[in-house]
Amino acid sequence: KSQHNIRLGKHGKWDDTYEDKSHPFICTHTEHFVYSASKVTFNKAQDYCSYGGMTLAHSLSPEENVEIVRMGREKSPLDALGKTHPYLNRNWAWIGASDNFNEGVWRWSRGTKVYFSNWENSQPDNLEEDYLEGNTVTEGQDYASISKVTGGWDDSFATRTREYVCMCEEHEFVASSDLDEELTVMLANQTAAWNEKKQQLEDDKVVQSNSPPLSCQTNRYFAYTERLSWTDAKAKCEDRQMSLAKISSMKQNFDATRLMFQQDPIDMATMKQYYSDDNWFWVGLSDIAAEGKFKWTTDGSAVDYDNWGSQQPDNIRVSEYSMRGQNYVAVHKLLRYWDDSDGDRLLPFLCQCPGYEDVDEEEVLGTTEAPSDSHGPIVQASTAAGGKRFIYHWGETNFWAAQSRCVNSGETSPVPQTLSKTSSLPASSDRHLGSGCWITTKRANSSAPTLIN
Question: Read out DSSP for 60-90?
Answer without folding.
Answer: --HHHHHHHHHHHHHHS---HHHHH-TTSGG
